[in-house]
Amino acid sequence: MTKDLKIYAEEHDKRVLASKTFKRISEIYNLSNKRVLDIGCSTGSHMLRFGKDSVGITTNPKEVTLGKEIGRDLRLGNAERLSETLSTKENFDAIWCNNIFEHLLSPHAFLVNLKKFAHDDTLLILGTPMVPIFTSLMSFKKFRGALASAHVNFFNYNTYKYTVTYAGWKSDLMSPFISDNKIINSFFTPLSPHLYLIAKNNTSYKYHPKKLNEWDNDPLYQPLIEVMNQESQNTQP
Question: Which run of H or of E encompasses 228?
Fold first, then answer.
């Protein structure tokens, strides 16, 4: 591990722990007592507020080496190929994905595949930059983060919610979590440049028969169908 990375990690730890928004979310959802999967974990700073046996996924091998040195379970892997890094026996109580959803090649497949590592009560916490409802706001620097050069997916309030819902997760709340006051959060939600979406694993979700017919015998889609079928079977008495 390079000295520069260690210094960066220490500084990043301080910034993350100083974040009132992250502290607020972790306390509301009791993340310190949950086994959390942190996808796109960087040096694993968010794991300082997560429970025992939490796991971080990163594409940077130096960060994995760092994790071994400082006692964080950081694993080398691609967010869209988690089965190559995790065992399906590794169910998590919560899945934390902050500032990664907009980078993915296939957000729908990503969300479906997360269910492989979830139990019935697993909580999904997504943090994603938003294209504002009032698109004229994009002329202000604060709102242009959604159009960063590395982003390949773009969401507004509604597309965010529906993308998650139709991948088998029940959207529970969208909020910027800028305050402890729910009314204040609700007021700013439509105007926020970054929203957290909290969702629960919808184990009864199934693809519509029309979609199944459309995908029938196509090997590209069979892994997704298998995940959904398994979910529906788990709910049967």
Answer: helix 222-234
